[in-house]
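Why do we care about 3D structure at all? Because function follows from shape, and shape follows, mostly, from sequence. That is the central idea of this module. The next example makes it concrete: a single protein chain, its amino acid sequence, and then its structure expressed as tokens.
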Amino acid sequence: MGSTKYITSMGELSRKDNSLCFQKNQKNVYLPIENIKEIYCMNEISINTKLLDYISSKNIVIHFFNYYGFYSGTFYPREQYNSGRLLVKEVEAYSSEKRIIIAKKIVSAIAVNIDEVLYHYYKHKNKEVKRTIDWIRNDFKIQLLQLDDIQQIMLLEGELWQRFYWTFQFVLPTDFMLNKRVRRPPDNPINALISFGNSLLYTKCISIIYQTHLNQTISYLHEPSDGRFSLSLDLSEMFKPIIVFRTIFDLVNNKKLRVKDHFEKKVNYCILNEEGRQIFIKAFEERLNKTFLHKKLNRKMTYKTAIKMDCYKLIKYLLEGKYFEFYSLKEGQ
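And the structure:
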């Protein structure tokens, strides 16, 4: 699926012959263009139209983050895969009862993955999380089956996330307590980690969807709107428990990220510093590319491949009406 390059320092990115050149402190670092599929600019980077034209010809997606680590936007080359037939089916599904079916499958996958993440802690004698596990396996399932309205489904999804956040007091050390979810800007270390991880996963899904025939702007759980790739929001929600929160729990509980060493706290916001971002990015990429045995398919794959497979499942359903379920941890660890 191609490689990812992260640029975490300030500097200038330009084209040099048939490669990319990153200039930092009067020194040049060359990045071979072959096999690169996406570039993350995690700091203030200067670029020019010559570079963008070259990047576009290679079908490379560039994601931009500002100095504080907040997602700014994406440079998205012209579509390399187009399917008028699929586009018609996507619009038809959004405008019919199929939207409800797909939205329920998304929320159901989120719930299963949260359940599996929490059950790991329950098995290790963290009995307090059982309250949320029991709710997911009983009340949540019953409520989801009865819903036939997008707003109601999204309200139930919101409750699901709130109940998950409630368990953090039993899973994380006191330095990383979550009083409430605050996004823009995050106000404490755990909110900073969640926001940063969610942004990375959202942009990763943009890059993966770009490699398929799906339209980025037509979504089923989230309402399509101007200025964002809403299908990536749908897709990333299901993988947040697996990729973002497992990464956070591992880094925090194993003291690979520490409040005093890896965060900057200002009056009204808290962010990861550069070292903290590098630690998180490394762990995030390792988890994305972690190989596991898919139980149903009886083959090895990575989580990045699992995300792309969910895209193909959705395409098959839209074009052929083929029954499917989105990926869950029950299919592989």
